[in-house]
Write a structure and sequence with these properties.
The chain is an alpha/beta fold. The protein is built from seven helices and six strands. The chain has a six-stranded parallel beta sheet with strand order 1-6-5-2-3-4, sandwiched between helices. Pfam families: Hydrolase_like, PGP_phosphatase.
Amino acid sequence: MLNKLTPRLQVKTIYDIDLNELYKAGIRGIITDLDNTLVGARDPHATPELIGWLELVKQKGFQVVIVSNNHHARVSTFADPLAIPFIPSARKPTNQAFRKALQLMSLKPEQACVIGDQMMTDVLGGNRMGLFTILVKPISLGDEGFFTKAVNRRLEKVALYWMRK
């Protein structure tokens, strides 16, 4: 089980991802979480820095789909102004939303990566689908929901403890 929770790459922020290396590795699609991955959980819109990064991602030839466990209104408020397709209420780590994202991009699992801040949803779901998984540090832990704080983050601490051994 621990190998399913282990990301292929771990970075501080999305800005630390080497997009050229991803492209060389055959990655053409980015499935990204929203809350605490792209912006803080309470931030409704993209920052200018994030808008620039997303433009760079598209210029380099990547497709992007946001896959979030959050509700439609939250995700659409963020994604619609950026013209980024999204899948809300994704129920990660189940496979359905990841499959749908791959279909939207017309890509195979080995051609896409998942970027997220949670091992229990983003990394586990991506690894189960055979996607390249990238774990980022959460932008703002203080804004997380009860389940994420009480369950997911505690389970992550235990998993990280065992991974270090």
